[in-house]
Amino acid sequence: MALTLINGNKPRHPVAFAFDVDGVLIKGKTALPGAKETIELVQELGIPFIFLTNGGVQTEAEHVKNLAAHLGLASLHQDQLVQSHKCRHLLQCSSDTQEYSPVPPRNGDASLPNHGLQQDEQPGSYFSNSDFEWATDQCQPRFAQGAFREALKGIWRHATGGKAELKYSVVGKPTETTYAYAKKVIFEMALRLRADDCADIPPSCPSMEIGTVYMVGDNPENE
Ligand SMILES: [Mg+2]
Question: What is the Cα–Cα distance from 72 to 66, expressed in whole angstroms?
């Protein structure tokens, strides 16, 4: 995977890129061939790009610091990293502190939808990504959050006697919620690049419309 510079001119941002991380740029802590050169080239060309990953066990600052180290790059900006849980605020979930009954009184009430389970304004269930597996530097892919979700569904089915479905929401790739958020971050980066480019010549600064955003991933089911 390597971009080729077709001509020596700096493009006016006709395109932008969203790069998946695991399996595209790195596997475990090992950079994949061409990954460093690709990021250096899009940086040199001033093309807006972000990292769009379903990984989320590190803070953004830790994640970009480690990614830069694995790729052998001097630095990356944490604003360019979109982790799967980052757009959770777009969901209709409340962060208010609230008390919930450990055993809601309407649980098992057959006259109610879903036999009364996950009713009574009890908190919803949210998954920050749907990946069943993810690529590491091991020879076999590792189970991801989607595998945990399927296991939980089995436990739920057993615990409820099959009378109620587990209700949940998912964000992360490839959900529309996450791509809408990623698009917003890319446009913010394009605006920042335009501000840099136009520092000396603001009146004649060219428009920086983005024609196409390309997602570069390793799993068509999740990108
Ligand atoms: Mg991947």
Answer: 10
Distance 99 CA to ligand 1 centre (A): 38
Indicate the residue type of 100. Answer: Y
CA of 19 to the centre of ligand 1 (A): 9
| Averaged pLDDT, 80-105 | 68
Q: How close is the Cα of 112 to the center of ligand 1, in Å?
A: 41
Distance 21 CA to ligand 1 centre (A): 6
Instruction: Say how far apart CA 76 and CA 82 lie, in whole Å.
Output: 13
How far is the C-alpha of 107 from the C-alpha of 3, rounded, in Å? 56
Q: How far is the CA of 122 from the centre of ligand 1 (A)?
A: 34
Homologous superfamily of the 15-87+173-216 domain (CATH): HAD superfamily/HAD-like (3.40.50.1000)
Kindly state the average pLDDT of the residues 53-61: 87
Phi, psi of 82 (to 5 degrees): -115, 110
Sequence spans of domains, the chain: 15-87+173-216, 110-170
